[in-house]
Every structure is written in structure tokens, then in C-alpha cells.
Amino acid sequence: MEPIRTLFATQPTEPSGAVLPEGLRARYDGDLSFPSAPEERPYCVANFVSTLDGVVSFNIPGQSEGAQISNSNEQDRFIMGLLRASADAVLVGSGTLQAVGPQGTWLPESVYPAAKDLYQKYRTKVLRKPEYPLVVIVTGTGGLDLASAVFHTPRTRVLILTTERGKRIGGARLS
Fold first, then answer.
1. CB 121 within 8 A of CB 167
2. Is residue 158 helix, strand or coil?
């Protein structure tokens, strides 16, 4: 992968204490930093691709992932993995879970396997976080395929957020 060339970057107003390991810094073209989260609420980062006119999905069965928009751009996948490696949790809607199919895990290396070791070193040694971010799946109906890889990947923690109606997930009633 060609290193990314940063076109615009701001300097953090306060030191975050996190510095990318050399391998990630070289690929990213510098350090990645986020402002500190206020104590009273979480800090959220959104990442998605879109066309110049704002389309984020063609909504074609089997082709509704961002890969159709980004053409599976290597630098885009690297940054998506880096953001996942930085996060405490990755939020996924049940529609996205279904569109991606049973192989989806939402782990940093699932989107960019070449940096797996770098992502893990960054999470565990620099950020002092668990090996993988929490995967949070949001569903209103509870219509989830519990055979999906995300539910069976070792050391992956999954939290399902649902409604009263959605308490019946995979045919089992949740309390």
C-alpha cells in the first residue's frame, strides 16, 4: 500500500497520550488523535464512504456495502481498520449486519488484514484497551442471524441493543 498523504490535519488542543506505533504512523502519514471525550457523554466517530453526490449505498441486493462506492480502496480500508482499532465500540445496524452477510465481524483486521499485528499492538500496548472493540448491534425487531461470525469469533464481545418487540432474538426470548 502506498502511504497516505495527509492533505489537512489539525493539531490536538490537548495531548491525548496516544501515539501511533511506527508502522501505523508511516502508513497514516502522521499521528491520529481525538479530542478527549466529555465525562458526561461518549465520544463518537463516524466513518463511511459516499459518492460526490452523497450516495452511500446503491441498495442493490448483494451490493449494498461501501465497497461498491469506494471500489475497495486500500487506503480507505486501512483507515477504517485504524478507526476500529481506536474505538471502544463499533456500532452496527441489523440491516448492515444482514447486508454484509454471515462473514462480517467488524474487527479492525477484518477490513484490512495486512495491519492486524499493528492494530493489535496499538490497541493493547498504546491505548491499553482489550484486544478487540465491543461490537454493538442495534435491532428493532430482533431479526438477527445468530450463525453470523460476529457471534462466534473468539475474544469478541457483542452487545445487542433492541426494543421490547426485539427481545426474541434468533427464536430465543431474552430477559
1. no
2. strand
**Could you give all domains of the chain from N- to C-terminal order, each with its CATH number?**
42-173 (3.40.430.10)
Q: Can you give the pTM of this predicted structure?
A: 0.78
Q: Which three cell numbers stand for residue 153?
A: 469469533
Closest CA to 81 of 97, 51, 105: 105
**Helix extents (H) in the chain:** 22-28, 67-70, 74-86, 94-100, 108-111, 116-121
Predicted confidence (pLDDT) at residue 117 exceeds the cutoff of 90: yes
Residue 91 host element (H or E): strand 89-93
The per-residue pLDDT for range 55-74, each reduced to its tens digit, is: 555 555 655 555 555 556 78
Q: Is 90 exceeded by the pLDDT of residue 124?
A: yes
